[in-house]
Amino acid sequence: MILCQLFKRIFNTFEFYKKMKILKNSRSVLIFLIIIHVGFFVSKIFIGNYFLQDSYDYCYLAENIKNHFAFYCANLNEPIVFENFTKRPPVYGLFVLVFSFFTQSKVLVLLAQNILSIISILLTIRIFNKHFNNTTKNKIFLILIAVSISQFIYANYLMSEILLQFLVIVLCYSFQNTLAKKSLWWLFGFQLIIILLFLTKPVFYLFVIPNVFICLWLSKHISKASFFSLVPIIALVMYMSWNKERTGHFEFSSIQNLALKNYNLLYFQTNKYNEDYALKINEKINKEIAQLDSYKEKQQAIKLLSTQYIKKDLFSYAWFHLKGSLRMFIDPGRFDLYNFFNFSNKNEVGFLAHINSNGVTGAFNYFKKQPFIIILLLPIILIFNLLKLYGFCRFWITNYKIAPPVLWFAFFIIIYITFLTGPLAASRFLVPLLPLYCMFASLGLLIHFKSFKNHNKSNLTI
């Protein structure tokens, strides 16, 4: 009931734009967004192939729920692998199931994601307009969104990024209304969205910890707010207990340890030492794990052994982790473009690998061999990515003292996901944050333009 009221308010966003008269014509924003989304949606329908590697897990999960009510993200006709019980949380699999229940086609799933993408962008404008209602800022924001091509690429893949983005924006909207209306109902809805977030992506299951402090802070404004932080904690414990019943191990998701061993540690050792050494350590860990019997012992061993190797080079890894985290703000998304346009990408490394091995000259020679559309788009996206990063930093340097709580909350979510993503970071991992990030960037760029025009510092209180 609470979520229904929440979503009703979100869809009232369209009416809000008519009242606020954003740009000269309130409909122009919606039409602009629809045109871009339809263009990418139709293009992908003709190009085909809506699947990335993770997509198959989600489709298996949806089919297994539908046919066997089994929350398992692999083929049930093959030997059971315990990791696949917890690898993918259930919400996106259920999302795929709902929009493909009566058909084998996944087109309706993509259509739903495009609609959610549009709503997320509009809702972001609504959140920020309550504090900075500036027409120029909205124009800059729409330009930045338009050149953030990964937004439209992942709206047309069977991937959870757009659904996660929608939930992140709704979470910020719920926080804003909780504080503005001092409403326990909005606060309860806020807790429910946190549950949906971690049941969509494992990265959010640790969010129950900062949520405790958020609710403690809210208790200064809303009586008994601190008790509401127990809601997602209880849900988390129940979900992990359910996983223990199925696998014998009390965990949230098996993908955490898999990523720790096969990505964080492997990429770090490849970067610091060499690929042969990294693969040798990875194989050594695999052999030790193979000697263990139970799933629980194997998962604990993966975590223990991988962590031990990281601790040996802790400071080097910390720097590697930080650099990897920040990369997603710069990455122009060559991998995304290659996949969207169905270019061959087998056994091909990216620009970073070419820079590491052959320097800037090697990367430039590699760039010249790319398809024409890649040569055309990548520099444009890269330039705008640098502009967005500058605008984001400029906003917070200039306005950290006057930023309202909801903007600090949005900033915290960006930092939270950035830090936890770590060395895996690429343009794809920024997608759930893109509307918020682009809005901060647009505000920062507006400050720059005003400051340049007036030859003095300016802020957004005007």
From TrEMBL:
- Transmembrane region(s): 29-52, 107-128, 140-157, 192-219, 225-242, 372-390, 402-422, 429-449
How does it sit in the bilayer?
A: Multi-pass membrane protein
Places the protein is found: Cell membrane
Gene Ontology CC terms: plasma membrane
**An individual GO BP term:** lipopolysaccharide biosynthetic process
- The primary site where this protein sits is membrane
User: Which lineage?
Assistant: Bacteria, Pseudomonadati, Bacteroidota, Flavobacteriia, Flavobacteriales
Cite a single GO MF annotation: pentosyltransferase activity
Which keywords describe this protein according to UniProt? Cell membrane, Glycosyltransferase, Membrane, Transferase, Transmembrane, Transmembrane helix
Quick check: keyword Transmembrane in the entry? yes
Protein's recorded name = Dolichyl-phosphate-mannose-protein mannosyltransferase
